[in-house]
Structures are given as structure tokens and as C-alpha cells.
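Render this sequence as a predicted structure.
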Amino acid sequence: MKNISLKNDAGLLALAIRLVVGWTYFSAFWRRTILADKLDPETAGYIGEKFNHFLPNALGIKPIIQYLVENPDILWINMVAFTIIEGIVGFFIMFGFLTRFMSIGVFGLAMGILLGSGWIGTTCLDEWQIGVLGIATGFVLFLTGSGKYSLDHYFMKNQFNFTKKRWFAWLGSGILPIKENIFPKVVLIGSLFIFGMTLMTNQVFHGGLWGTLHNKSVKPKLEISEGKFEASTLSFDVFRTEGVDVYGSWVIGIELYDKQNIKVLEYSQDALASLPNEHISNYYIAKVKPGKHSLIVPLGAKAKLTLHNEALSGLASGQYTLKMIDISGAYWEYKIEK
């Protein structure tokens, strides 16, 4: 009887964690469906575009993210399902119904956040902290279940038949059916795994253990590839892989230099702002597009740019340097053979 009391107390003591974690996930559903429509692909703030931001430096699940952002219809279905799951998990965690089953959902959702976006965060490594803390709290809630102020407790107290089933102890609340001599080992192994995941991702994403600290969310970075000359046309791919997720990279200049470092082609800020849409072929849901004063390249966006200019038709064979200039003063160069 003493052991039962202690384990019920553990569920009660975790009440604040349960409520806060539950609201964290339920609020995602609330924001996207009630406060604003973030599930409409045609509106600003579409959650699928935010998901695209994860792509450049996701860990382990990058192929899954890439497949989804390349297929907008499938992406939308997954974003709707993901939002509904967050709502259900958060709601049931707050009310303490099937607490251990929902804690597995918390663990899984937090793991997705960690691996997908743990590298994002301009000041306090925001997404990494959310991910690792979500994993830890999911594990704790699985161990404790819910205490006095929960639906699980209400059903157990009133002896509903399903609470007497063996599965309820694993998926609801109450005493976990694990032998007393094994239980501490389960706690230790699970805790060490989560701590190891925390240290590993902190190092991979941010260099938090050794080496040089880095934050890929501070400055924009563009990767240029697949450069090709064809008659009076220059085409190349541009992929935004770093920088703040809520702002674009504002490209105000594209220049081409020959091997003597003489400028042979220039697209000014105004020219890029009026670049025809048919000269931009986007790969993903996040779009490279002309803005009011520049060419906008959001985080995770990748596109093939095709520049038609008569100045390209008379160029001699050799190596050329393509330069893309951001409004911040940063620039990126790429060598192209003609």
C-alpha cells in the first residue's frame, strides 16, 4: 500500500509539467485552426512553409522532409494530421486521460522537433531546447502517469472496468507493471539515453561540447550549384541553408566576372525585384520570388534561376565567377566553366 501511495504522489507532483506540456502541444492546434488559419497553403504563415525551414540542416529525417516539401498535396495532408495529433495529445495530457499513451506522443513529437529543427534559434537555441525538454518530460510523464487531478484517477477511483485491464497500467496511469528490482534500471537507462541525445544534438547542431560554438540561425547563407551556360542564357540553382527562419535573404545583386576579374554581367537590385516569375523554378513549398526591392530567398527555399541576357552570347570559353550579394553585405561566389 505504501508503494501505491508513493507512485500516486509522483503523478500528482507532475501536475504542473502535465498542464504546461499539454498546453504547449494543444496550443499549436489552437493557433493553427482557431486563432488563425495556418493550414491554408495559399495564406501567409502556412505551416508547411515553416516545415520547409527545417530542411537544410535536419538530422536523420532530412529525406522525409525533402519528400514532403517536394510534394505539396502530401505535405498538406501530413500537416493537417500532425496538427490534429498535437491537439489530441495536448488535450488528453492536460486532462490526464490515457496519460502514458499520450506521453509517448509527447516523446515522439518532441523527437521530431529536435531532429528537424533543433538547429534553429537565433538567441537561446530555441528549437533545440524545446525538443530535448519535450523528450525528457514525455519520459517523466510515462513513468509517473497522472495523479489525483486527472481523468485516469477519476476512472480508477470509480473502478471503471477498463482500468482493471493490464493494458491500462501501461497506457493510462497507476502502478507500472515493472518489477521493483528492474524499475530503477529502466529509469536510469531511459534517462541516460535522453541525456546522451541531448549532448549529441547540442554538439552536432551548435558545437556545444567542444570546438567552436556556432549558430546557423544568425546569418543567411546561400549555396549555389548546377551552373550552366547555354547561348545567351545562364542558369544555376540557389539554396538558402542558414539564417533566421522568419526573414528572407534579400539578394540585391547578381554579378558575373571573367578570369581577369572583369565584370561581364550585372543584375541590379531593381532588375532582381522585377525578375519574371518564369525565370524562377522553385523546387519546394518555400518560394524564391521577386520582392518590392530585391529577390527574396526564404530559409529552406531552393530554385533554379534562369537569366537571359545578350551579354552572355559573346563570352569566350573559360572559367567565370558568379557572385550573389545580400542586402546585409554578405555575398557568395561560385565558379562556372563555359
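Summary. The first strand starts at residue 221 and ends at 230. The chain is about 45% helix and 20% strand.
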